[in-house]
Amino acid sequence: MDGELVGRTRHGELSLDQLAELQPGLGQLMPQISQRYWILYYAARGGNWALAHYQLRGIRGLMRIGETTRPKMAKFLRAFQEGHLGAIEKAIEARDWADFEKAYGEGIKGANSYHATTGHPEVVWQLPPTPPEHLVLTPIQEGKSE
């Protein structure tokens, strides 16, 4: 790797190009986004608005990574964030379940439309029928945990 920028570890060296290839694409990011979107719903339904907002911020962060690693998809990811996630965020901030549920459902329709538009009509997301069991989805008093 003479003359190339390299990263060194105790295991060897990697070129800048090799490091770039290791960055996650949407195939790796979307399952994480999907899980957070699932948790987001049940947290809001349970009244744990803080957890819902935390999941929303996590989704935005993952989508920003996707914008960087898959620039051809950036306009779709930004549009989803500005439109659907923006509406969900307003409902979370207002703690308005009716507005949240409507915005969330529109987000599902929007995501599936984007999947079809970007050449992946086989990817149809749906809300899992059961809440995640590994998290407390009801309100938590500050400074206390179960």
Question: Could you give a short description of this structure?
Answer:
The protein is mainly alpha-helical. It has a domain at 22-117: Four Helix Bundle (Hemerythrin (Met), subunit A), CATH 1.20.120. It contains 5 helices and 2 strands; from the N terminus they run ββααααα.
Protein described:
This protein is mainly alpha-helical. It has a domain at 22-117: Up-down Bundle (Four Helix Bundle (Hemerythrin (Met), subunit A)), CATH 1.20.120. It has 5 helices and 2 strands; from the N terminus they run ββααααα. Strands 1-2 form a two-stranded antiparallel sheet. Helix 2 (26-46) runs antiparallel to helix 3 (49-69), helix 3 (49-69) runs antiparallel to helix 4 and helix 4 (74-94) runs antiparallel to helix 5 (97-117). The protein is globular.
- How many alpha or pi helices? 5
The separation of the N and C termini measures 53 Å
CATH fold type of the domain at 22-117: Four Helix Bundle (Hemerythrin (Met), subunit A)
Label the overall shape: globular
Largest sheet: 2 strands, antiparallel
What's the count of strands?
2
Radius of gyration: 18 Å
Structural class given helices, strands, pairing? mainly alpha
Look at the structure and give the mean pLDDT: 93
Unreliable segments of 5+ consecutive residues: none
Order of helices and strands: EEHHHHH
Assess the beta-strand content as a share of residues.
Answer: 5-15%
Widest beta sheet: strand line-up: 1-2
Identify the CATH class of the domain at 22-117. Answer: Mainly Alpha
Helix content: 55-70%
Corresponding CATH architecture of the domain at 22-117: Up-down Bundle
